[in-house]
Amino acid sequence: MSILAINEQLLRAIGVGVAVVRASDLEFVFHNGPFAEWFGAPEEGNTLGDILPDLDPKELEDVKQSGLRYSVELQIKPKRRTLIFAVTVSLANGLSEQVLIVECQNITRIRELESMIDSYSTMVERNTRELEREKERVERLLLNLMPRAVYEEFKTFGVVTPQLYQQVSVVMLDFVGFTDFAAKTDPTVTLSELNDIFTAFDRIVEQFGCERIKTIGDAYLAVSGMPDPTPDHATAVAHCAVRFLRYLERRNESHPHKWQARIGLGMGAAVGSVVGIQKYVYDVFGPAVNIASRLQVFANPMNIVAPEEMKYALIDEFQVSDLGCVDIKGMGEMDLINVTSGLSMPQGNRLL
After folding, report:
1. Cα torsion at 225, 229, 232, 238 (round to 10°)?
2. Residue 265's closest CA among 166, 173, 164?
3. Measuring CA to CA, which residue among 225, 215, 242, 109 is closest to residue 164?
4. φ, ψ of residue 214 in degrees (nearest 5)
5. CA-to-CA distance for 242 and 291, rounded, in angstroms?
6. How many CB atoms lie within 10 A of CB 322?
7. Does the predicted TM-score (pTM) go above 0.85?
């Protein structure tokens, strides 16, 4: 067998479609089995343009003139499935007559795999974004239930160690006549009113570096000095209390229901921890909370009552007046003070 015969047999055996056409008229000289299987067997007189009409004639002419390779991807649809081929046309030198070698490789599977990978990557990116949004939503929810420092501990270790804070201050607000109001008013209106007011309180608490711990019905509880120590925790809760009442006064000027509140302040030790297993909530309990809770009962509507031990912490920034000694259930006798704003607020220039 001659070398040419061996080469021709090899070309017929490989999995790449190969065809040879004369450069002068582009008529077929040779084609192997895969080429005929994919594009049909060229008949006598057929040219390359008859079998592969999507080839660019100008590019073929450039190949003949310059000898550079022409590569292109072609799509054919012999049946229902679209096939993609990488086609390369090159000029063969060293022969008595110039011919063009046409090599065709079926890359349909490669392109399908690339498409699948792109689709999978897009799906992974979309799922990742959804997970990030869900993570942010859960984080915002947990930050509504506990301070950030506590949340970071919970996120890292899965538990929150109860902490005793020796000196914190607490502000507790309770509305006057809320039970009657809630009984006579549409629940939707009641909830809207509380949501409006508590949202404003949250902004005030944040402004003075305090932490809103919880709301119990119409009661609002916030602390200062925990979980991060704060030297001026007493004045911070007092400023919150004054701003709470100032906000209610201003709101009452334009709303049909006139809210009245009593506020108690407390100072002392408190324990903070996450309570519960299935429904996590950060809670605070201890002497400071008990004092604030008990003292708000002794406050007149739209007044603030604090223990006498807070007097020297508040006297430089607030107007403080003695209320005398009061016997408090479970705590015995305690000297109380009334706290009001030390700032003179001109009419028409009221702030929260």
Report:
1. -10
2. 173
3. 225
4. -165, 165
5. 18
6. 11
7. no
